[in-house]
Amino acid sequence: MPSPGAHESVTTSDRPARVLLVDNDREACLLLASEAASLGIPCETACSPRQAREACAKRPPAIVLLDLTLPPDELSEAY
């Protein structure tokens, strides 16, 4: 049994689920990716909707975390 506060990694089949973090604040992306990695969750970061679309086209993530406070012109590109 895991100790209190211990985290098990999220998995899909036999591989950990991959998360795509999308935020125009590069430092925020890196901080969140670092925290996720410490929990055993592999992450990729994208600092623009264009980068996010490219990442999804190469290898679709299990989860996308999108910064909804992106500037309006960038946010509309994300959809």
Quick structural gist:
The protein is an alpha/beta fold and 79 residues long.
Largest sheet: 3 strands, parallel
Strand content: 15-25%
Rg: 14 Å
Biggest sheet: strand arrangement:
4-3-5
Q: Number of helix segments?
A: 3
Q: In terms of per-residue confidence, which ranges show pLDDT below 50 for 5 or more consecutive residues?
A: none
Order of helices and strands: EEEHEHEH
Counting helices, strands and paired strands, the structural category is alpha/beta
Mean pLDDT: 78
Q: How far do the termini sit from each other? A: 41 Å
Shape: globular
User: Roughly how much helix do the residues carry, as a percent range?
Assistant: 25-40%
Task: Count every beta strand, where a strand is a DSSP E run of 2 or more residues.
Answer: 5
Explain this structure to me?
The protein has 79 residues and is of the alpha/beta class. Helix content is 38%, strand content 20%. It is built from three helices and five strands; from the N terminus they run βββαβαβα. The strands form two sheets. The chain has a three-stranded parallel sheet with strand order 4-3-5, with helices on both faces. A two-stranded antiparallel sheet has the order 1-2. A hairpin with a 2-residue loop joins β1 and β2. α2 runs parallel beside α3. The mean pLDDT is 78.
What topology emerges from the helices and strands here?
Layout: E1 11-12, E2 15-16, E3 19-22, H1 26-38, E4 43-46, H2 49-58, E5 63-66, H3 72-78
Helix pairs in contact: 2-3
